[in-house]
Amino acid sequence: MTSGDLPSSPFHEGEVRVQARQGVLEKVAAFGPRMIRDHLIDQHREFYAQLPFLLLGTVDEKGRPWASIVSGTPGFLSTPDDTTLTIAARPLNGDPLATTLTPGAPVGVLGLQLETRRRNRMTGHVKEMGPDGFSLAVDQSFGNCPRFIQTRQPMAPQDAAPRTHEPQDRFSDAVRALVARADTLFVASAYAPDASTVAHGADVSHRGGKPGFVRVEDERTFIFPDFSGNNIFNTVGNLLMNPKAGFLFPDFETGDLAYMTGTTEIIWDGPQVEAFTGAERLIRFSAEEIIHVEHALPLRFSFDAYAPNLKATGAWS
Question: What's the pLDDT score for residue 258?
Fold first, then answer.
């Protein structure tokens, strides 16, 4: 097997359909198999070892995706070999990850370094559970572009006591405010009709924009523009086949986290899409369950700069 080659297509039906719709099918077919690997290359192994947090996408027993985050001192992520990622951390207070991590479960991974805009994507499954963490077996791994990532600088960790609010089926005032001012969100999705195919599984990805790019429409619904990316369409391809999704909104200065799961609608074209400069499509989300945890993340980051690409994007007004 040559570097970058997988034993079967790295893309599932939904990803291929979106690639065709966007007119990039042949282009992606040429570079995709070389870009997506069945192992972690040395550069990515070194990258994970530097990170103080990791994003994860999992699916609960009801088939609902959730986006989660774990954290630790750099080095809490390690790779004993090029097909295993070991995470020496347990789920944070209130994180659905506490119940979704089970042996063999599909997991999406996003490694993100805020100060440099570097990121790496991985899909895999739970290999082993332990008292102090867990390990993942790699299914797919690939680098990701730095578009729309705002840079932030790490600050001293805080030890404020987390406060987990009771799950709700609508936005509280605090969650609504967090969503409305967000410049960063994480979305988990999943499509797994055939667990034996590496193209199927769970995923978690990043979306960024100017504060206010996520518009709250009512007590359960928000909408946001989906900008140009790497043309692979992992997230949108999953949502096309399975509209269920999970979102995580972090406040990097307070450590507050808002987890939510529900259903999405992709708005491909029309006046709303055309009115938002830079939008290739819109994604509307309707929440089913929301978990708000104050001071959940011990890490803190100070804002540095917006991604240069955002200059070419508009606003809802």
Answer: 98
